[in-house]
Amino acid sequence: MSKNLFSLVLILLFASCGSIEQFNIDYMVPACISFPSQLKRVAIVNNVSDTLNNWSIPQKNTPGANGLLQKTAYYDGLATLVAESFAEHIAAANYFEEVLICDSALRASDIIPRESTLSKKEVEELTESLGVDAIFSMENLLIKSVNTTTYISDERIFHGTLDVLICPTVSIYIPNRNKPVRTINASDSIFWEKYDNTQTSVAQVIPHQRLIKEITDFAGSIPVKYLTPYRETANRFIYTNGSSDLRDAAICVRNDQWDRAYELWKRVNQSKKDKLQMYAALNIAVYHEIAGNIDEALKWVTIARDIAQKIVARKIDKTTQKSNTLFVNGTPSHYYYISLYMSVLEARAKNLTKLNMQMDRVK
């Protein structure tokens, strides 16, 4: 289930229904890679050839929209700063007992840029000298920026944007292995924009020193979710209208009185009206998810989904004689949203065992 799809459907539902309230929740997500409990100390090394030693290398300028310029540049010479940022982010996760960084760039003496993995001998020497169990080696780093300037004629204003794509490659090494046990090829992007009255004033969207600082900090954070559990923010909603108890429960939620809201939703669930039962069941599912009881949340979202399916199945297309369970009048039905939310909970339940195993390391 795509998180972006879920968010989009939630926006559509929010726009079509005035009786819901949207909010964000935070929860832990397991890292892509799990480590044995005995792996406690790690070192970050910079294995990137930064021979160009240049922070910004313009590559090409091409005409953009309305005859204005689009500038593309590649940033080299930042690997040391990014490796330091990477180490800081790994340490801040408090997942490993100790996080060290090797001060020297391993490929600093290279004359010709090259991408090379660490040899078995290099790994053994590094782990022994640093006293660590594993090496996280930054092997390659691509940073590409596209700076675009356009003129918005309707507003008579210039618009500058800077979109930076960052692709770090990190390999994991342990002693007595001839090659990395895992290699991470990650990518993400960061974006800035600026509006002003002249083309010159928007040409530099962000001051250069601040740009370098934000790029390196962001780049260092990208591989972390592959290596340590991380916190994710997601959209959720509750039904807030249809009965006085639902309205009162919404007030309780705004005041962070979730237990009181839960009692009111249980009472609404006793209603004889299917729609109110569906509203209450969905809200109770959200309550249990926030409380960390995913199994109970799945139980209640299943109840809500079944009721929603029964409700929407009554709306028969007179032409085709088929029930439309996904869309009603061109907008996603409650059944559709609840089914997507159910998929989100199923994914969370599937990840729980892995997450719990990983979190046992920090107990």
Pick out its properties.
363 residues, alpha+beta, eight-stranded mixed sheet, 11 helices
Task: Outline the secondary-structure elements.
Blueprint: H1 3-16, E1 20-29, E2 41-46, E3 57-63, E4 69-74, H2 79-92, E5 98-105, H3 120-130, E6 134-152, E7 157-173, E8 182-185, E9 188-196, H4 199-203, H5 208-221, H6 224-227, E10 230-239, H7 244-254, H8 258-268, H9 274-290, H10 294-313, E11 327-328, E12 331-332, H11 334-359
Task: Describe what is shown at a glance.
By secondary structure, the chain is an alpha+beta fold. It is 40% helix and 28% strand. Strands 2, 3, 4, 5, 6, 7, 8 and 9 form an 8-stranded mixed β-sheet that branches.
Task: Name the poorly predicted regions.
Answer: none
Element-level helix/strand string: HEEEEHEHEEEEHHHEHHHHEEH
CATH class of the largest domain: Alpha Beta
Based on Cα principal axes, name the global outline.
flat
Helix/strand class: alpha+beta
Number of separate helices:
11
Number of separate strands: 12
Radius of gyration from the alpha-carbon trace, in angstroms = 26 Å
What percentage of the residues does DSSP assign to strands (E)?
25-35%
What is the residue-averaged pLDDT?
86
- In CATH, the architecture of the largest domain is 2-Layer Sandwich
CATH topology of the largest domain: Double Stranded RNA Binding Domain
The profile of the biggest β sheet is:
8 strands, mixed
